[in-house]
Design goal:
Blueprint: H1 3-13, E1 17-21, H2 40-43, H3 46-49, H4 52-57, H5 59-75, H6 80-90, E2 96-99, H7 105-109, E3 114-116, E4 123-126, E5 132-134, E6 153-155, H8 166-178, E7 181-185, H9 196-203, E8 207-212, E9 225-228, H10 231-243
Parallel strand pairs: 1-2, 1-7, 2-3, 7-8, 8-9
Antiparallel strand pairs: 4-5, 4-6
Helix pairs in contact: 1-10, 6-10, 8-9
This protein binds nicotinamide-adenine-dinucleotide.
Length: 244
């Protein structure tokens, strides 16, 4: 079976297609996923550094990781996978992207309808007075960065143990319950509650198409089709087939 063709046909017939993306789609833009080989996460174990408890206990230590992640994010450029999704939206074939990523690369590629399930790294917020500033406008020479009120700034990205922004959670679950097709791209689908999105879509009758370099817990259970390979390779092929 030609799965690229099957996927293109499903998208072409669907009146509402969504994409759920994870760290894998940005891997080839130079931002390493949590699960996978080394890089940033070989140095900073996410379970030790990416939690709100760790931030409260030792903000300087967590900011050392956040600063390095920020440098990586602001250097990164979208790849062909991000660009293919932006073009699908432009063609009216993709309603929106729900992303677990905090890197802003979908928007940089031209996507407009993006639900940032885990927030983003573009803004920081003061943990005391809730002042919000652009991430790039604050000095990171001394860590942690401190607000004029004396409180500590934290990026608006969601750390483990923090709630999902209300509007993102609501829109994502609502859209998932109404879509006809869901592309699940570059996510291990183990981080809750984002991991519920494919299940909600499936329960409401959507076709689930997974694009990943490796099998996941969804493969063969929740997913109707599994397209094995890099998203920067597979998504442009689907786009090309759709334009045929
Ligand atoms: P994950 O690290 O758990 O899983 C990444 C998945 O991507 C794996 O299943 C892997 O097989 C797959 N993958 C790797 N390279 C790929 C490629 N080129 N094409 C397609 N698939 C590929 O990521 P997750 O499921 O998103 O969950 C981890 C959490 O980490 C998320 O909540 C996210 O907020 C955060 N995170 C974000 C970034 C980012 O913003 N770019 C980077 C690291 C972690």
């Amino acid at each position: 079976m030609d799965l690229i063709k099957v996927t293109a046909e499903i998208i072409s017939k669907s009146s509402s297609t969504l994409a759920l993306t994870g760290a894998g789609i940005s891997a080839e833009s130079g931002i390493p996923p949590f699960r996978g080989s080394g890089g940033l996460w070989g140095k900073y174990d996410p379970e030790e550094y990416a939690t709100i408890e760790a931030f409260h206990q030792d903000p300087e230590k967590v900011w050392t990781m956040l600063k390095e992640l920020g440098e990586m994010i602001f250097r990164a450029e979208p790849n062909d996978g991000h660009r293919a999704l932006a073009e699908l939206e432009e063609m009216g074939k993709l309603k929106s992207i729900i992303t677990q990523n905090i890197d802003g690369l979908h928007q940089k590629a031209g996507s407009r309808s993006v639900i940032e399930f885990h927030g983003n790294h573009r803004k920081v917020v003061c943990m005391s007075c809730r002042t919000r500033l652009d991430y790039e406008s604050i000095s990171l020479d001394i860590l942690p960065p401190v607000c004029h009120c004396g409180g500590i700034f934290k990026p608006e990205s969601v750390l483990f143990g923090e709630p999902i922004p209300h509007h993102a959670l609501h829109s994502a679950f609502h859209d998932a319950s109404e879509c006809e097709a869901l592309l699940v791209i570059g996510t291990s689908a183990v981080v809750a509650p984002a991991s519920q999105i494919p299940i909600i879509a499936k329960q409401h009758g959507a076709k689930i198409i997974e694009v990943n370099t490796e099998r996941t817990i969804l493969t063969g259970t929740i997913s109707d089709f599994f397209l094995e390979g890099s998203s920067s390779h597979i998504l442009p092929l689907v786009l090309k087939m759709l334009k045929h």
